[in-house]
Amino acid sequence: MTTESTAGTAAPRTLAEELRQRDDASLATLLRARPDLLSPVPNDLTQLATRAGTRASVVRALGRLDTFALQAAEALAVAPEPASYEALRALLAGDDGDAAVDGALPGAVATLRAQALVWGGDERLRLVRTARELLAPSPQHPSPTGLGPAVAEATSGMSPGRVQQLIEAAGLTSTHDAVSAVSALTELFTDRTRMSALLDDAPVDALDVLGRLTWGPPYGQVTADPAAHLRWLLDRGLLVPTSPGTVVLPREVALHLRGGRAHRTTHPLPPEVPPAAEHRPRVVDATAAGQALAAVATVEELLKEWHEGGPAVLRAGGLSVRDLKRTAVALDAPEPTAAFWVELAYAAGLLASDGGFEGASSPYGEGDAGPRRAEERYAATPAYDDWLELPAAERWARLAVAWLAATRTPGLVGGRDGKDRVLSALGPHLDRSGAPEVRRRVLDLLAGLPQGAAADPEAVLARLRWERPLRVGATSDPSGDDLRTRLARWTLDEAELLGVTGRGALSATGRALLSDTPHRAREGHRTHDGHTALDGHSALEGHSTREGHTAREGHPAFERTLAALLAPLLPEPLDHVLLQADLTAVAPGPLERPLAETLGVLADVESKGGATVYRFTPGSVRRALDAGRTATDLHTFLQTHSRTPVPQPLSYLIDDVARRHGHLRIGAASAYVRCDDDSVLGEILADKRAAALRLRRLAPTVLAAQADPAALLDGLRSMGFAPSAETPEGDVLIAPAHAHRTPPRTAPAPVPEGPPLPDDTLLGAAVRAIRAGDMASTAPKRPAPTPTSAPGELPRTTSAETLATMQAAVLTGDALWIGYVNAEGTASQRVIAPVRVEGGFVTAYDHTADEVRTYPLHRVTGVAELGED
Prior knowledge:
The structure is a single chain. With 869 residues, the chain is of the alpha+beta class. Residues 1-8, 359-373, 472-476, 517-553 and 784-789 have low confidence and may be disordered. The chain is built from 35 helices and 27 strands. The chain has a 5-stranded mixed β-sheet with strand order 20-21-19-18-22, with helices on one face. The chain has a 5-stranded antiparallel β-sheet with strand order 26-25-24-23-27, with helices on both faces. It has a 4-stranded antiparallel β-sheet with strand order 14-15-17-16. A hairpin with a 2-residue loop joins strand 20 and strand 21 (702-705). It has 6 domains: 15-135, no CATH class; 151-257, no CATH class; 275-356 and 375-471 and 479-521, no CATH class; 578-660, no CATH class; 665-725; 779-865, SH3 type barrels (Roll), CATH 2.30.30. The relative contact order is 0.08.
């Protein structure tokens, strides 16, 4: 196996030298795989190599490897450095070989090379130092392979005499120094034949001890006076003391006992995700469409509950546990499901905090008009009203697109964060940047199955664990699942609730959501918070937008495309209901919006499902009358929209409530009650329940109250009366619908995972800049007439020499090497081709930045001609 980067060229001595041998496409691949290396753009390839070896960057890169690539890196970490490709293959395949390993290893090594975690030719593979430190075994950080230190490392603290005793006990000839003795012992332990002969003479109990340590952990405890079988192992170096009472099994011994394998089990191939159940695609699509319709109805019901002002915002942000429970009861759903619907509405920009300001004026007077500070509450946003006007399919598309891109993670609600604080719905600590990637990957795996096929959730989770194995330090819950696994479980549940899947299989609309989402179209087109500066006074152009604008900006064209696929699967809205004699109405399907809104005011929802049951009560009828409807309007409405005759009990109920409605009038005195029937007022005064209202009679038909009108209305209604509010002019006050909205709000922007992915324009500009900077730092320089600075430092020349050299270069067209200090005091080396020198400035083509720039001459520290290469 030979790579293009190493074939036909001198063997690189450092990672920077190997990067210089790569072509531009290979460098772009590296920067695309590890975008953190671009912030900011490195000055040259040496700086790029240095940054690629930093701990934070290497940890991030290792976390992106699949299981087999990570196992290959772990094997290199315990192999002698440098290691050959064949030695690496032997560590992964073992002495008996493994065809699967042979087939997968070239790809794994290519991945490690492409991400600059491994460099060198096939005969001299080297793992970058930081990765070796992270993966190599030590008492503080045991190796994932379960191997201990090598013989040379384990015996480094031994005296030379003790080392000589070890090789003599092992049947080797004594040497003149400890280094050669350790080498002889290492050769013995790595020789399969001689090592087998040595172990043939071992006591049975000694072999049992070795068996317990073979696959790790390699450390064990011994007493000050070890047993004979332990003494036999210690005398021959098969166990080496590391501290008083602690011994370790050397790496070479463990590898012999393992048959040459670094891992007990290698996983060269990803686990399959086979179909667990198969359904007809039409059944899956119909089921998903039903769930989609229910999802839209649930979000609408949630926000209808909060349209006049929802629960209060906690001081630390979020929804209280009590309010979440109330919401769950109102939606007839478990609390985790209620948290999902609340978070989905928030992610879609339909729900937000009102900021604690109310702008509605008081209907009872002018003194309270204008914005005022109030308790901060959750409420629907103005975007909700626009959303309601859309067809059901488009409303679902808006929710689905927002869900796929959101970093909000409702599954965390009710858990605790790192500071042992309870995580609340709509709270500030629910963003998990990896959530969109996990959702997409789960749906991609379902999309890989035949249409109508559902997968076993455990098979999906096993595949995800192989693609991103759990690393040390990853967060997990009490069940042992890491966050990525929990995100995958939640994705499967949420996709079913939302109608992206049906019966566990991806629906046609779910496939469309994946195949051409704005996220896919914009993948690799996200923006930095500001430009990527090259030298403090310039920036790379061609930046792009940050992932996460999917939900915030909206994508009407794509949402309409999704809606067009879903719409034929949804039932047509109905314009009628079925009235029944028990004061209920049955809606056999979804209703047209005007009908649903009016019926929602006139009756209470009793049950939901395929058919919705509404119940008429005195309170619901009074609510319709309060909204400005008359008894005649209600009778006409029911006769128009009922496919069955209007039952007599329902007509009597409407007439009875209407007869008493508005008989009492409530206004502002501070508050008063007036009624043409003074006997009714007398009845109110005699009722003990009215004591809290502190009523007194001003006139035969008027009572005054020391309570505000709203409290007076509620109090009399609780006593069984049906009062209505009136304006200062004496007219009936009709309460407006949808009285409370937040100020305009944008949907929350998803929190990006790590640095943004660079697009092709940014990658091309970055590679050119790095190449130019590397040429400036490595090109041979022709000595200047006066003594120059030491290698690696900025060139130093006098102002006259700098000016003369610049002017000469303008005439000859030669390129120059200059030192430059910008306005922030940052020094850099540049290769320029001067075009014009005048007015104290030089205009030149800057090879480092690949553009024409103007430099003040007083900031140029010196200049030197480029030597011929």
